[in-house]
Specification:
Structural class: alpha+beta
CATH architecture of the largest domain: 2-Layer Sandwich
Helix content: 25-40%
Number of helices: 13
Largest sheet: 13 strands, mixed
CATH superfamily of the largest domain: YycH protein, domain 2
Number of domains: 3
Radius of gyration: 24 Å
CATH class of the largest domain: Alpha Beta
CATH topology of the largest domain: TATA-Binding Protein
Number of strands: 25
């Protein structure tokens, strides 16, 4: 079956490549052009608009030419697009329409950009994050979105808000996207990207917005991280304790546990430095919150992170969950982070995410952050000498495993599916992303592993981007 799968797909890929209007020369999607400056020890500013950002975005240059970008802060396309989106959400005159099901804004053949969010997010919250005081009817037409597209269009440009299985095309009178289109043209002229293709070109009725590169020539930057808490002095911990507990160190009680963890206490506030690299803060609620307010809670979290966090560089909102505690209603927010613009998957089972924070409107009940910092390296060792496998080759190499996982999850058999088994297995893939994997095993000089992260049938699989071997599963 593996050879049959490979033969069929390679045949189709050859046909696809011949149909393309230009040959696709591949490079790493986000080329490293300068020496990385180590981030500052403490966060200086973290706004709600910084918190809400896409985890990746697709750029369509026109025709069959696409690329995927993982760092929203690069190239200026996201920042410029936010200006146009804010204008759309505050426009007096808009027109909306819903296309037929299966509409994919990235595959119109026209110049476009599609931003994918890691979590379905309130359209109203997006508007408020972009300083739109009185949003228009868009927030009611499609209250939650998981992606937003800007399309040049054959006539007037338009926007596509997608969420909960719906796509809404929106036309705004007088809303200019010229700057966005100009940024895309400049990006294409720079040639600092890989070309991607859509798996729907092979399986048009089953596969959604899954884009993969056919080949990658360059490698990921070499990154080493360390457990910053293990390297901290008592004085440095005391400085952070004063920040979190808002009191001079002389008034703060300190306890050193036998396992090396250090606890600071002042009144009903507690700060704990764990030797596994995490810091935990707890403050009992002072007021009972009987009605949740997501916008207020997000704003409170952003302010807290800005003032207290060890570092907010690379952090982005990845999850929102409603919670109850101490008779109050609030939210648990989770954050992930990027290194060199590439998302990081944590392998430490004790640490679920980079940051977890419980917020009850204007009160923060708890905060937990992994203090895992990048180590400063010699410039000569920044680039891996090996070549990254394409995600297509990784899937091919691990097809038997993925097929077994799919059949176990669905309860189906190969006999039941017959010739449809390959298509069904590939159609179960929800997302493919280049990432770093942090095993979380060493306090110093822990090398991050470049992986292709594949989400399928409610599981996450990380395959070594150079060998194709499975290194993590959950």
């Amino acid at each position: 079956m593996k050879e049959k799968f490979k033969t069929i797909l390679l045949f189709l890929l050859v046909g696809t490549s011949l149909a393309m209007t230009q040959q696709l020369w591949m490079q790493f999607p986000e080329r490293v052009t300068g020496f990385f400056e180590p981030e500052a020890s403490y966060s200086s500013s973290y706004l709600l608009s910084d918190m809400i950002a896409p985890n990746k975005y697709l750029v369509g240059f026109g025709g069959s030419n696409y690329t995927m970008v993982y760092d929203a802060n690069k190239y200026g396309i996201w920042d410029t697009s936010k200006e146009s989106l804010a204008g759309l959400l505050s426009a007096d005159t808009i027109r909306t329409e819903e296309p037929e099901s299966g509409y994919r804004p990235g595959q119109t053949g026209e110049m476009a950009v599609v931003f994918y969010f890691p979590e379905s997010i309130s359209t109203y919250i997006l508007a408020k994050a972009w300083d739109v005081n009185e949003p228009n009817d868009i927030v009611d037409t499609i209250p939650y979105v998981d992606s937003i597209a800007i399309v040049k269009g054959s006539g007037d440009p338009f926007f596509v808000f997608s969420g909960n299985g719906r796509d809404v095309l929106i036309y705004g009178s007088g809303i200019s996207v010229d700057k966005v289109l100009s940024e895309i043209i400049d990006f294409e002229d720079s040639a600092e990207f890989d070309y991607y293709y859509s798996l729907s070109e092979i399986f048009p009725t089953e596969v959604g917005d899954i884009y993969v590169p056919y080949e990658i020539r360059n490698s990921l930057p070499v990154v080493y991280v360390s457990n910053d808490i293990a390297q901290m002095t008592t004085e440095e911990m005391g400085i952070l304790a004063e920040r979190f507990l808002e009191r001079e160190i002389d008034y703060i009680r300190q306890i050193v546990e036998s396992n090396g963890s250090t606890i600071y206490i002042y009144n009903n506030k507690v700060l704990k430095f764990n030797m596994n690299g995490t810091v935990e803060y707890f403050h009992s609620l002072e007021d009972t919150i009987q009605e949740r307010n997501l916008y207020l809670s997000l704003s409170t979290a952003a302010e807290f992170i800005s003032q207290k966090a060890y570092s907010a560089k690379g952090m982005y909102l990845a999850g929102i969950q409603e919670i109850e505690a101490e008779g109050s209603l609030g939210y648990s927010l989770t954050f992930r982070y990027r290194v060199r613009g590439i998302p990081v998957l944590l392998g430490n089972r004790e640490v679920e995410e980079y940051v977890q924070i419980e917020v009850f409107n204007n009160q923060v009940r708890s905060y937990k952050q992994l203090f895992r910092g990048e180590m400063d390296l010699n410039i000569a060792s920044l680039q891996d000498s090996r070549q990254i496998m394409s995600s297509f080759d990784v899937i091919d190499q691990n097809y038997v495993f993925l097929e077994s996982e799919y059949l176990q999850h669905t309860g189906e058999t190969k006999e039941d599916l017959g010739d449809q088994v390959v298509q069904r297995v590939l159609s179960s893939v929800e997302d493919i992303t280049i990432s770093y994997y942090d095993p979380g095993l060493k306090d110093q000089e822990e090398r991050l592993i470049g992986v292709w992260l594949i989400r399928a049938h409610e599981s996450v699989y990380a395959f070594n981007a150079y060998s194709g071997k499975l290194v993590y599963q959950r």
